[in-house]
Design goal:
single chain; mainly beta; Trefoil (Acidic Fibroblast Growth Factor, subunit A); Jelly Rolls; 6-stranded antiparallel beta barrel; 5-stranded antiparallel beta sheet; binds 2-acetamido-2-deoxy-beta-D-glucopyranose
């Protein structure tokens, strides 16, 4: 009895099935996505495969194809499931294996396994080839960390938002302190009142109040420490000695003329030590401007002593600014034009990108 297999229709059907099988082996199924891998670190270069499915770097192997399925499983170009072979975690693709899940191609193309983009490559001694692991094999101290980057299937990372430009000078919108007062740890209950100088010694720290105008709402502010060379200053002067710099912090409370060392309250955020040298300006910190509020900064010694007359910019702004600041009588200065560069602590509103 003639087998059904011998009828021409069945033969055609079988041929089509066979063709489909071939096509399926070449093209990823479902919504999987295929790529080649390139290693960075170690020997670098394309990730290829030995015929038995071990994934290798180096050894002159051509780039192998991997396809990732929606569950984070990888299959190689021969349809073999890729696994992290226990117990060594060697990355290889075996006939009939169900893929180890948890792989992903990052927005930048970096392959990760269980969230880590670090793979370990170890020399095999076989024609310059390196095996790939996720956990460094014990006793092999010649292994190196590598990252593996896919040449497709990346989604593209979102562009980081443009950073505001914070100039290290007073070219934009800026504020000078409307109150400077000193606190002295050796006279902790003394209120030192208004000061024209920033004074920093081992015992004395200076508090600076900045009034943040309403127009700074939603802007980024930076605390700027200007420290020109003496010969760049015309009306101001300073004494500066000692090594270590100054430590600038934002206080939780607002200072007043009656603030003392004992009442100044806690530090809200310490911006750390700025190691200052004449002829420089320093962006001490950038932070969201707290519009319509007063921010109090403390400058204390981190080794250096500093005493300076806090002059402000000689630009034509000064008269206008002084006019607008008539509500701050303590800073009604002589109406002569100030010449010379600025020194001391300022607050600038960074311009939008
Ligand atoms: C290798 O990567 C691991 C995990 O990311 C890290 O802890 C280790 O410091 C790295 N080693 C070297 C030598 O970079
Ligand atoms: C600041 O941002 C808030 C919230 O996005 C908005 O309602 C407000 O109008 C903004 N103010 C200015 C001056 O841009
Ligand atoms: C303020 O600083 C200037 C410059 O260093 C100095 O000449 C002056 O004596 C200081 N004034 C006070 C009260 O410390």
């Amino acid at each position: 009895m003639a087998s059904i297999m011998k009828t021409p229709t069945a033969m055609i059907a079988l041929t089509i099935l066979a063709l489909l099988a071939v096509v399926q082996a070449l093209v990823p199924r479902g919504s999987s996505c295929c790529f080649h891998l390139n290693a960075n670190g170690g020997p670098g270069g394309a990730v290829g495969q030995l015929s038995d499915g071990q994934n290798r770097i180096g050894q002159g192997l051509s780039a192998a194809q991997y396809c990732i399925d929606p569950n984070g499983g990888l299959t190689d170009g021969d349809g073999r499931g890729c696994i992290l072979t226990p117990p060594t975690t060697q990355f290889q693709c075996d006939v009939g294996a169900s893929p180890t899940l948890g792989f992903a191609v990052g927005c930048d193309g970096k392959l990760s396994s269980s969230g880590s983009t670090t793979f370990i490559s170890c020399p095999t001694g076989d024609n310059g080839g390196y095996n790939i692991y996720t956990v460094a094999p014990k006793g092999q101290d010649i292994c190196v960390n590598v990252t593996l980057t896919a040449d497709s299937c990346r989604t593209g990372c979102p562009a980081s938002p443009p950073q505001p430009k914070c100039p290290k000078d007073l070219s934009g919108d800026w504020q000078f302190p409307h109150l400077i007062t000193l606190v002295d740890s050796t006279k902790p209950n003394n209120a030192e009142g208004n000061s024209w100088n920033g004074t920093i010694t081992k015992e004395v720290s200076s508090l600076f109040n900045f009034d943040i105008p309403q127009r700074y709402e939603n802007k980024t502010c930076s605390a700027l420490l200007l420290f020109p060379k003496q010969d760049q200053l015309e009306t101001s002067a300073y004494e500066f000695y000692g090594i270590g710099g100054v430590d600038i912090a934002l206080l939780s409370n607002t200072a007043t003329f009656s603030t003392t060392y004992n009442t100044m309250g806690p530090v809200k955020s310490d911006f750390g030590v700025t190691n200052i040298a004449p002829g420089n300006s320093y962006t001490v910190a950038t932070f969201p401007c707290q519009a319509n509020s007063v921010m109090t900064f403390m400058m204390k010694s981190a080794g250096s002593c500093f005493n300076y007359f806090q002059d402000y910019n000689p630009s034509p702004y000064v008269k206008t600014l002084l006019g607008t600041l008539s509500a701050v009588p303590l800073y009604t200065r002589p109406s002569t034009d100030f010449v010379g560069s600025s020194i001391g602590l300022y607050l600038t509103a960074c311009s939008s990108p």
